[in-house]
Please model this.
Amino acid sequence: MKQLAIIGPTASGKSDLSLEIAHKHNAFILSIDSLSIYKEIDIASAKPSNEELLHVKHFGINEIAVNESFSVEIFIDIYKNAYQEALKNDKNLIIVGGSTFYLKSLMQGLSQIPTIDELVKKEVDAMLLHVSDCYTLLNDLDPQYMKNIDSNDRYRIEKMLLIYKASGLTPSQWFTLNPPKPIIQNLPIYYIDVQREVLRERITLRTKKMLSMGIIDEVAMLEQKYTREPNSMKSIGILEVLEYLDGYASKEKMLENISMHTAQLAKRQQTFNRTQFQETVSAPLAELQRSIHSIF
Model:
């Protein structure tokens, strides 16, 4: 069984390349996309079509509901399941996507967390009725660690509070004693190197395609069903459509904003990938395609 990762900025052609490789080399695909993970967010996430999902088995797509939280822990569980399914079915595994923070976490691993019993869970649930007080408590105990956590980040505050109450240790103390262990090692990473002008053109075309596919109707449906509260409803492509629906932007301005914000995201992705993944095979799409085919 072979594993490899294909990364690159949004709209660089990762999905099409991974589908071609998967078809030719008997592989499953694991998506690392922070929006495709959600069911019902289809157009805004630019996820593969239903036909493509039928032809190649995907993991990490349509896994959770719009109003559920996504986390590194959930992603790692999805990876472990994908790996076992690939082994069982004698398949290779292609990891592909733009949210490479999750790939980095997979390579670095996670620290083990203490055993948390029902009493601790109930105590923490009661404390979380006042999230700001919980943040203040943790910040007083461990200001160095908590400086990286927003005072409104309920999910991470809950996690740190569970660790503290279950172990009696501050987060810094716990993670020092329980360092992370890599979950995957020696993973070949292929990076799609694309010129900025070409990328901007691809982003513009993709944004227009989203409009023709019905992104406005999709976002209106999602808002009606889930409200604007879930984190997923604050994503690029959704926020701009909500501004249009509120009358704050014309349709043309909405498209311009989606393209602009997507291009800004692509730039951040390029910076992250360049600084976090030193040992990669980096090349334009066609050249990278030949390199990947040659390893099978």
Notes: The longest strand covers residues 92-97. The chain has a mean pLDDT of 95.
